[in-house]
Amino acid sequence: MAGRRRGRGNNAQQHQAPQHQRAGPRGSQREPAAFAKSTGCDSQTPHNKLTITQARRGTPANRPVRVYADGIFDLFHSGHARALMQAKNVFPNTYLIVGVCSDELTHKLKGYTVMTEDERYDALTHCRYVDEVVRDAPWTITTEFLHRHKIDFVAHDDIPYTSAGSEDVYKHIKEAGMFVATERTEGISTSDLITRIVKDYDIYVRRNLQRGYTARELNVGYINEKKYRLQEQVDKMKETVRTVEEKSKHFVYRVEEKSHDLIHKWEEKSREFISNFLELFGPDGAWHVIQERSGRMLQALSPYSSPRGSPSSSPTRRRRSLSPYSPSSA
């Protein structure tokens, strides 16, 4: 069975739509779906039996096709919503009634639920495709139930539903030509969601302990509580160490990057310095050219000098020796 819905104890009456709003499908969808009366449908509109062909062709606005879908609807999810969307859109003018089984019936025939019946009823009243909710719906649909709620067709996936000693609880509905099939959404179901939680049980317990839930609320023993809290501390330490390691790696990487950058710049500056040095002081460098030119200039500017030890070779002395007044000329 798919999900079934309900309202919340005393709050259920607060969601009860006015009588005139329960006459047909919700238009504005601003209000929660109504809860069905225990006496059934009280509409005064004549309710003639419809064939599927007539329903698909369309009906007058004041005579919507009343489609019923039932289920447990525990942990109401997108798979439930998609099934109800299909049921709502199976005919052009559909009034969708959803039946939700009680906790007592569900726990007896299927198993324990996560949500209470009131929570499940209330969840479905807020589904946009639902016009009316039947609380404490029967596990097997009876003829009396169909007449009481003036149901034209029953919507459910086509897979035989074996339960309560029957090979298919919808068999008599199918034989009466009142069954319309919907398709299940693969990959999502209440059982799948519960399996995920059970699989990661320790993670969720630790998370809720961290959020302030007590071990008593989580039905966790003293030893397990200490184990979970110790594991939480260990994980925090691991995360701190991991963070420090990451920061250290980043720091080392930056230091290496800076070192490589400095070495590269030093190599470039060294090559530039050596090149400039060779240009200035090398064999063909500017310094030798300057020295050579300076020597030539100094040589050009300085007086001519005789070799050492022969002062008489000076031109001045030679002129003096040739003077007529010198003693040697006499």
From TrEMBL:
<keyword id="KW-1208">Phospholipid metabolism</keyword>
<comment type="function">
    <text>Catalyzes the key rate-limiting step in the CDP-choline pathway for phosphatidylcholine biosynthesis.</text>
</comment>
<dbReference type="GO" id="GO:0031210">
    <property type="term" value="F:phosphatidylcholine binding"/>
</dbReference>
<keyword id="KW-0443">Lipid metabolism</keyword>
<comment type="similarity">
    <text>Belongs to the cytidylyltransferase family.</text>
</comment>
<comment type="pathway">
    <text>Phospholipid metabolism; phosphatidylcholine biosynthesis; phosphatidylcholine from phosphocholine: step 1/2.</text>
</comment>
<dbReference type="InterPro" id="IPR004821">
    <property type="entry name" value="Cyt_trans-like"/>
</dbReference>
<dbReference type="InterPro" id="IPR041723">
    <property type="entry name" value="CCT"/>
</dbReference>
<feature type="compositionally biased region" description="Low complexity">
    <location>
        <begin position="9"/>
        <end position="21"/>
    </location>
</feature>
<keyword id="KW-0548">Nucleotidyltransferase</keyword>
<keyword id="KW-0808">Transferase</keyword>
<dbReference type="GO" id="GO:0004105">
    <property type="term" value="F:choline-phosphate cytidylyltransferase activity"/>
</dbReference>
<comment type="pathway">
    <text>Lipid metabolism.</text>
</comment>
<feature type="region of interest" description="Disordered">
    <location>
        <begin position="1"/>
        <end position="47"/>
    </location>
</feature>
<keyword id="KW-0444">Lipid biosynthesis</keyword>
<dbReference type="Pfam" id="PF01467">
    <property type="entry name" value="CTP_transf_like"/>
</dbReference>
<dbReference type="InterPro" id="IPR014729">
    <property type="entry name" value="Rossmann-like_a/b/a_fold"/>
</dbReference>
<keyword id="KW-0594">Phospholipid biosynthesis</keyword>
<feature type="region of interest" description="Disordered">
    <location>
        <begin position="301"/>
        <end position="330"/>
    </location>
</feature>
<feature type="domain" description="Cytidyltransferase-like">
    <location>
        <begin position="68"/>
        <end position="196"/>
    </location>
</feature>
<dbReference type="InterPro" id="IPR045049">
    <property type="entry name" value="Pcy1-like"/>
</dbReference>
<feature type="compositionally biased region" description="Low complexity">
    <location>
        <begin position="302"/>
        <end position="315"/>
    </location>
</feature>
<protein>
    <recommendedName>
        <fullName>choline-phosphate cytidylyltransferase</fullName>
        <ecNumber>2.7.7.15</ecNumber>
    </recommendedName>
</protein>
